[in-house]
Amino acid sequence: MFSQQKRVLPILLSVLFGTVSLFSVATAASVQQLYTNLCATCHGVEGKGNGPAGVTLNPKPADFTDCAVMQDLSDTALATTIKQGGVGVGKSPLMPPFGTTLTDTQIRELVTYLRGFCK
Q1: Cis peptide before 97 (omega within 30 of 0)
Q2: How far is it, in rounded angstroms, from Cα 76 to Cα 14?
Q3: pTM, full prediction
Q4: Residues 36-88: pLDDT tens digits?
Q5: Contact 89/80 with Cβ under 8 angstroms?
Q6: What span, in angstroms and rounded, lies between the C-alpha atoms of 111 and 108?
């Protein structure tokens, strides 16, 4: 009985951790897709604020690769800006609100993704 459990346990653990790993990859892919679809047009694929629509905007979109700027922004400030748009936080009205488009979970994941641009 115990020898059979010893053989099954590694298989169960690999399935469990393999599933968690696949979930993390799927989450990362979906967050990247959200960024690409909703943000990259202005903020650029690399987060530098130089997307095709962003180069013509005044003020320029935020540069997420600027670590000094990103360190001054709390996660709450970033999430609020994503939810309410620029107008909601006293910034540019050109930044649209996504509070009715994205879930709170998606917004938190997007904030984490944005933090990844500052290396």
Answers
A1: no
A2: 36
A3: 0.76
A4: 999 999 999 999 999 999 989 999 999 999 999 999 999 999 999 999 999 99
A5: yes
A6: 5
CA distance 73 to 45: 20
> Which runs of consecutive H residues, i.e. helices, occur in 1-119?
2-38, 40-43, 67-72, 75-88, 104-115
Write down all domains in the chain, each with its CATH number in brackets: 43-52+60-119 (1.10.760)
The pLDDT tens digits of the residues spanning 90-115 come to 999 999 999 999 999 999 999 999 99
Contact (Cβ atoms closer than 8 angstroms) between residue 70 and residue 116: no
Distance, in Å, from the CA atom of 79 to the CA atom of 109, rounded to the nearest integer, reads: 10
